[in-house]
Amino acid sequence: METDSMESSTRSVQNDEIHHNGTFHFSSTKSHGGSGGASPAVVTNIVGPTATSVYELLECPVCTCSMYPPIHQCHNGHTLCSTCKVRVHNRCPTCRQELGDIRCLALEKVAESLELPCKFYNLGCPEIFPYYSKLKHESLCNFRPYGCPYAGSECGVVGDIPFLVSHLRDDHKVDMHAGSTFNHRYVKSNPREVENATWMLTVFHCFGQYFCLHFEAFQLGMGPVYMAFLRFMGDEEEARSYSYSLEVGGSGRKLTWEGTPRSIRDSHRKVRDSNDGLIIQRNMALFFSGGDRKELKLRVTGKIWKEQHSPDSGLFMPNLSS
């Protein structure tokens, strides 16, 4: 394969929407072919100036994302996607002519004949898909980057797990702990001010994995509640290999919760709104706090363990060592 062809094909993939919607960060670069070995099919499928030119034709000039039916065109043949047609108020962004309702059926047919690699090919995904199947796969691809799990702000940083761990520690100043057990004390001077409650996040490293422990206050129905839950920094399938328990108590009483950590693929709000965690009503939280019930003093303890399959019994046995 000629060097120029390889460079051209790499640029054509990198022009996909992955690079137009934000910056991804990764702790290391994956290699996709050894020296002297055969080039992977994911590159050879799009090699050559013809494939590059067709792929550029399918790029919307407004949002620079790949176009999917219906693809619109003006009387002069300039194309754009259906989403941007509304945004430009039915005026062609190239020649300023009125767009009307002309479909570019020829370009839609050309797209139908293309096979392209997943846009996360450089992160390890080896799959190649017909053009119209590619988008659905990419929304669920196991190689897609993770979003920052910090819940106290709208953080748009994405990347792989090692990068996000460093990001949480260095940029969000999140507490990092090693081990599978924890004992945390949460204190708040005015527990009635739910709107100003601090969002607490702690990251635990055990079993070679990272887990995010969330604790926060929010309004549920007519009154505020406190909630603690655990999220796994990885995919949902791997998260099901682990379990955790949480316990809060005082004055000789206690509440316990046991469950499976949710993947950080699920947003913090989705987990919280599904009530998938230890929920403590305010009156109960103040009762556990003791004293004059004017200050919140909660001690939350817990542990994380890995479920191990026993070949003899067919059951899953907990592994509590980290």
UniProtKB/TrEMBL annotation:
GO cellular component: cytoplasm
Entries under InterPro entries matching the protein: 7-in-absentia-prot_TRAF-dom (IPR018121), E3_ubiquitin-ligase_SINA (IPR052088), Sina-like_RING (IPR049548), TRAF-like (IPR008974), Znf_RING (IPR001841), Znf_RING/FYVE/PHD (IPR013083), Znf_SIAH (IPR013010)
GO molecular function, one term: zinc ion binding
GO BP, one annotated term: ubiquitin-dependent protein catabolic process
PROSITE patterns, alphabetized: ZF_RING_2 (PS50089), ZF_SIAH (PS51081)
Domain SIAH-type: 113-173
Pathway: Protein modification; protein ubiquitination
Pfam families referenced in this protein's UniProt entry, alphabetically: Sina_RING, Sina_TRAF, Sina_ZnF
All residue ranges annotated as the RING-type domain in the record: 60-96
UniProt KW keywords: Metal-binding, Transferase, Ubl conjugation pathway, Zinc, Zinc-finger
E.C. no: 2.3.2.27
Coiled coil location: none
Gene3D superfamilies given in the database record: Apoptosis, Tumor Necrosis Factor Receptor Associated Protein 2, Chain A (2.60.210.10), Classic Zinc Finger (3.30.160.60), Zinc/RING finger domain, C3HC4 (zinc finger) (3.30.40.10)
Catalytic activity: S-ubiquitinyl-[E2 ubiquitin-conjugating enzyme]-L-cysteine + [acceptor protein]-L-lysine = [E2 ubiquitin-conjugating enzyme]-L-cysteine + N(6)-ubiquitinyl-[acceptor protein]-L-lysine
PANTHER family linked to this entry: E3 UBIQUITIN PROTEIN LIGASE SIAH, E3 UBIQUITIN-PROTEIN LIGASE SINAT4
Family the entry assigns: Belongs to the SINA (Seven in absentia) family.
Protein name: RING-type E3 ubiquitin transferase
Organism whose genome encodes this protein: Brassica carinata
